[in-house]
# Entry
Amino acid sequence: MTGFGNDRTGRWVGSTIVAFIGLSTACPLVLAQEDAVAPAGAKDVASSEQLDVSFVRTEGPRETLGSFLLLKDELETRVSSYLQDHSRADFKRLTTARDQAEELFDLSAVPGAERDEVAVDALTAMLDIFDRIEVPPLQSVPLAEDFDQSSAPASWRIPNTPLRIGQVDAGRRRGEFLFTPRTVAIAPRFSRQVRHLPSRSPAGMDSWSHTLSNMTGPGIPAGLADRIPRPLKEHWLGTPIWKEILIALLTAVAALLVLLSHRLVARRPTNNKVNAVALRMLTPLALLLAALILEPFFANEIDTAGEFAAIVEFTATASRSVAALWLFWLANQLVLERIIQSPRIEEASLDSNFVRLAGDIVGVVGVVLIASWGLHKLGVPTLSVLAGLGIGSAAVALALQPALTNLLAGLTLYYEKAIRVGDFVQFGDYKGHVETIGVRSTQIRAQDQTLITVPNSNLVSAEVTNWGYSNRMEIRLELNLSDQTAPDQMRWVLVKLREMLHAHPKIESETVRVRFAGYGDDSMDISMRVFALTTEWNDYYAIREDMLLRVKDIIEESGTDFSAQSQVVYLDRLEAPDKARGKQAVEEVAAWRRSGQLPFPEFAPDEREQLDDTLDYPPTGSPDTSKD
# Structure
């Protein structure tokens, strides 16, 4: 992708890991002085002024131009050697010299994804230009101290050319003298303008662009390019057609393999969300792997150039960016689902929903940041785009106001823990069990099994009764006994009811309240209030049912009966209240009174302690009795 090989595999791996945050431009590399060939017109200057070019030097126009001329001769030597031997060592020296030469260009105005191609295009154009123009003697090129530092950034134009060497006024290379951004941009055009001039290349190259674009890396047999039919050696978009066809075929094969892996993963069923997300990660991993394998091969071995190289580099950068974003998002989801599968977090709970919300926020922010930098590398002005989004944020906020209201209400529910999944709640005319608590709304399964979806803002603003937080459940009863009930019969009934409730293992003894409450139109009323030791509604109704049946037994045993709302004529003697039982109840109350054991208004503490949990529940004969 650079006109000739570029050893950048390490940089691609690194850029992928940091999600294309980018790498700094490579530092100038050392060029051994004994391997450098002094350029024409510079030998006398190098000897007389002892110009130090052991390193690529950019402290002034003279040093920059001298470094370029030395590197030009080094490149000619390495290209000639590589074309003869096709050895990996010569190829590495060639790419090293090329990278050093690129350090002499100011590429600050070029998008990151295009810098390699632009730098190579500018370099090959400059090499062709300097093979055809007269190079000024180095002693005539100004030094940095020859410029007035108080004025604008210094620059010097190469005589009879539009090419300039200027001082960088910002960035990490501030103060260095490099070939200016305009020189980088116009060098290919100026190269075409001077192409009619004879080349004075010591290596005999008529065109650097043509020679380098037909080269291949050491991994491709040296004679392969010679055996390519002549029509396929023609250039299209700056690259030989046969290279473009080969790249298209390899890309198509890689895309097909990625698609097949994606379909295989999609067809594999799994009920575990963690496993499902992990399987989905295989597709972006395959895409990333394909980019990491193919791009170095395209750059180092096939070796593209020109506009086609820019297209390939753009596509590769975009593919890596998409794969990195995709992989980051799925990795974020994988961590979230793994947290949610913790035994302490229920799948449908508010905690799990807000863990997902937090993860989604992290994922979106991360994706936006990575995408912004990736687009910046591709030359898109992301800062301007983000600024534009900021201008429209007020309108977006107004449009999303209902959703934001429910989101904030969901946050309130989360922090206050007002309701939980499984709680039985009542708000307004609705009652039911909470099934799911989402970021926007809560779903409640009503007692008639309909599903009620309530916006979170409504739940926060309404009065909600949550039975799920109670550790017991209230039972209230009103007993209307016949107005023919004798006072001591009533006392007996009250005592036996209290005894039954204190002895019941599922009734809280401390809160038992059974009192004669007053007179009705044709009744004597008893008020009962107790708390069942349960939080489950099914258990509640079972305990209440057991209590009601025992109340019925006590009323019948007392010889009285429940009040009738109308006159009742007993046709059968067996249906009438048992007078003998009533007399027995009255006599038992009299005995309590004589012995000083009348349990009014309350039982004696020791007597109540003896009663606790003495009742059989579940009742004898129940299948559940054996479980206890």
